[in-house]
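[09:14] KT: can someone run the structure on this one? pasting the chain below
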Amino acid sequence: MFALITTPAVFYAEATQPGVVGSAIGVTILGSVGLIATAMITRKDFSFLRGIVVWGMMLAFVAIVASIFLGFELGHWFSLAMIGVIGASILFKTSEIMRTYPTDKYVGAALDLFASVALLFLYILRFMRD
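[09:31] RB: done, structure tokens below
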């Protein structure tokens, strides 16, 4: 399902600005690896980020719906804010996976983290494309 949503955005970005998808992939990989490594190396409990992530996503949803109905552009600042919120989500989810997921539930853990990394890619792509 996620591929159905993202494929048109990726093709459009590559058609209008060749090379931007590769750059977005590189930045996403570097950022994700850095955030995941931070959570794994420090072994810090990032559960305090849960409230920030929830409120950030709720505000983003309201902004997206408002932009659809009121007809305004969200722009660079929105993309940058979403990159920050999703980065916090990756830290929180990595910490939560290390603390709560049993070792035999690695597929669920990977899917949980993949959703945030894929969303991070889309917002980095949107930021680079604008």
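[09:33] KT: thanks! The mean pLDDT is 92.
[09:34] RB: yep, looked fine to me
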